[in-house]
Write a sequence for this structure.
């Protein structure tokens, strides 16, 4: 650790935890299993050099290399990381740029007492975004997190007397929400099992094709096919669907438990929010509340139907999208809606954003939604109709295609009912915008976090006297949109979102 | 939500159009740029038809004429329309731009949130004495782009922006 008043040059470089000498090679080997399996099976046939052995040596070597070539150090003002053998790169980040600290540990790491530390700095460049230390001793990881986040918060308190009070406050931790087994009931509604199932199928396909395994060589497959041929088509379809649904449900529940067991969201007195979850891989993320700009309540369609919701933080330095879990901004996994709302209310600067009524949009919004959702579907049906009349396609295809405009209409109506926006009053006003049907999202963004406004008018919107507004921000999705606002409402909304340009003094 | 104070000039940025147009030479710039793209498209398309798909002369000539017709329509309408639509303005507190021709987009960013200002001059722009100024904020979705600005104007704008943005006290996120 940097001593008091230690100069930059005297701060020693530190290595990763020694346990990484075991963890890295094992991780690389595990990742390369499909390749190794393929090579092994191919090797049995031919008599060339032992490719699989060479591959193993190369993989282990690469894992070991990481430990030898990675070094880091923390000075009074910066964090530095050096890695690479042939091309040595050093990355430096100022300590006060750190927004979030994310600790995770998979089972092997946990057994050895190691954590992986990912430090988010709020830059939007995806390539340079995370500062990653692949493995530190657990105590070192905690120390580092405390140093990066809590010390920064305590430093802001001026005066000596207040410092000890700040340190005492650091230890105060209040729990906002804790995992409840009832949440598992909401797991199948997330369809994560479907994604896993597809992934497994893909993996099996790859291994099978590399190892030249043919399904019809196995007796079990034969039995299945005979059964399928002997029963009627309808029954087979029903059985197949039931089997798929059962598999997806089991995978979803397993995936959910593995990912979110033991979920805890706590607030530290030093001004940070802390989440931790995971059964095998334990993952802990810390977000500075200073960087929190709002909360998004997210309801995928199936989850909404069973009364559940997700809660995601809108913060600078955390990516959203591609699975909020991976970006570290998840405040609550799929859980009952009431729990999601209570979490949002506890985290938001202005809880009124959660309850404020979002006035229903005008009929033009419904018309636009209908045209966009059902329009293409209707065109398709018409095209198929023409093709059928000319004898190109069978009649039942047209009938089946009729389902699409019906679904489109239902989707459009649901989208229309989800649309709504409002700007709350009070000392921490927020923009609340809700939209979407397949995934309904209520984004509650602090007005202080809005750093620009984009007003988009497409050709058709100009004819209809409408515009779409996007409030751009440095947090979360980088921009939160309000579609189809009437031209009359635009000026009021812009001045509500950007009061600074009214000429008043604003402390940023 | 609507303010009781009278709307000052900056406050009205969301309502009225930004005042300044870009350089008149931008019309030529957009025309030439689009012309080059159409020519490349035409050449690639014809080459594919002739060499990859072995189509007879009728088809290649016919499709070539069709593309040329569409291109002529596009080139005669787009540059002048774009010149009419594109606007920019630097107020005391915010910078605003309006871009597009079929779909229009107005972007407003308070000066206190501006992070960087870039000037770009590609070969075609250098030929016509133009520049493109990009103003970025901390948001990845926020950059304001003013294309087809005269060189001198661009320099003045960049300097004024840097002065205005420099007054901000923090990292403007």
């Amino acid at each position: 650790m940097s001593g008091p008043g230690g100069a930059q040059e005297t701060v020693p470089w530190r290595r990763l935890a020694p346990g990484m000498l075991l963890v890295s090679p094992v991780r690389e080997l595990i990742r390369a299993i499909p390749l190794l399996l393929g090579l092994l099976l191919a090797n049995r046939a031919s008599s060339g050099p032992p490719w699989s052995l060479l591959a193993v040596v190369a993989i282990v070597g690469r894992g070991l290399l990481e430990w030898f070539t990675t070094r880091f150090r923390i000075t009074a003002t910066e964090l530095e990381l050096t890695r690479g053998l042939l091309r040595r790169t050093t990355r430096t980040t100022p300590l006060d740029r750190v927004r979030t600290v994310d600790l995770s540990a998979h089972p092997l790491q946990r057994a050895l007492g190691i954590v992986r530390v990912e430090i988010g700095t709020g830059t939007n460049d995806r390539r340079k975004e995370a500062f990653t230390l692949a493995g530190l001793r657990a105590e070192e990881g905690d120390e580092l997190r405390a140093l990066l986040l809590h010390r920064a918060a305590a430093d802001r308190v001026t005066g000596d007397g207040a410092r000890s009070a700040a340190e005492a406050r650091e230890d105060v931790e209040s729990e906002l929400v804790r995992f409840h087994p009832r949440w598992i009931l909401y797991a199948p509604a997330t369809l994560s099992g479907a994604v896993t199932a597809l992934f497994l199928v893909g993996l099996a396909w790859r291994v099978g094709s590399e190892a030249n395994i043919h399904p019809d060589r196995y007796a079990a497959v034969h039995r299945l096919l005979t059964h399928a041929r002997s029963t009627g088509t309808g029954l087979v379809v029903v059985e197949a669907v039931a089997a798929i649904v059962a598999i997806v449900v089991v995978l979803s529940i397993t995936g959910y438990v593995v990912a979110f067991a033991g979920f805890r969201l706590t607030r530290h007195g030093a001004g940070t929010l802390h989440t931790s979850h995971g059964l095998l891989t334990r993952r802990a993320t810390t977000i500075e509340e200073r960087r929190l700009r709002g909360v998004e309540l997210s309801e995928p369609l199936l989850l909404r139907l069973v009364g559940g919701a997700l809660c995601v933080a809108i913060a600078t330095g955390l990516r959203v999208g591609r699975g909020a879990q991976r970006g570290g901004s998840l405040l609550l996994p799929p859980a009952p809606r009431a729990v999601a709302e209570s979490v949002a209310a506890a985290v938001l600067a202005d809880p009124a954003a959660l309850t404020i009524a979002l006035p229903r949009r005008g009929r033009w919004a419904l018309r636009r939604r209908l045209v966009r959702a059902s329009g293409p579907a209707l065109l398709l049906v018409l095209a198929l109709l023409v093709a059928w009349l000319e004898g190109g396609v069978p009649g039942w295809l047209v009938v089946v295609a009729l389902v699409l405009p019906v679904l489109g209409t239902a989707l459009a109506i649901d989208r229309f009912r989800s649309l709504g926006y409002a700007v709350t009053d009070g000392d921490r006003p927020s923009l609340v915008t809700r939209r979407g049907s397949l995934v309904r999202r209520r984004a509650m963004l602090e007005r202080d976090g809005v750093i620009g406004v984009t007003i988009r008018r497409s050709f058709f919107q100009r004819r209809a006297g409408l515009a779409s507004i996007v409030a751009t921000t440095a947090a979360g999705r980088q921009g939160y949109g309000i579609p189809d606002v009437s031209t009359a409402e635009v000026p009021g909304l812009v001045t509500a979102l950007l009061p600074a340009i009214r000429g008043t003094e604003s402390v940023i | 939500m609507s303010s009781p104070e009278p709307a000052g000039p900056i406050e009205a940025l969301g309502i009225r159009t930004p005042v300044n147009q870009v350089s008149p030479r931008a019309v030529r710039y957009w025309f030439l740029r689009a012309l080059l793209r159409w020519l490349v498209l035409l050449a690639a398309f014809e080459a594919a038809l002739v060499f990859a798909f072995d189509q007879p002369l009728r088809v290649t000539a016919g499709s070539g004429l069709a593309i040329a017709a569409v291109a002529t329509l596009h080139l005669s309408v787009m540059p002048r329309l774009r010149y009419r639509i594109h606007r920019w303005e630097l107020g005391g507190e915010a910078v605003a731009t309006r871009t597009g021709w079929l779909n229009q987009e107005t972007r407003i960013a308070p000066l206190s949130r501006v992070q960087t200002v870039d000037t770009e001059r590609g070969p075609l722009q250098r030929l016509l004495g133009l520049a493109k100024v990009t103003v970025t904020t901390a948001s990845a979705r926020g950059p304001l782009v003013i294309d087809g600005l005269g060189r001198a104007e661009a320099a003045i704008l960049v300097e004024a922006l840097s002065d205005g943005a420099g007054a901000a006290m923090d990292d403007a996120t």
Notes: The helical segments of chain B are 25-52, 57-85, 123-128, 151-166.
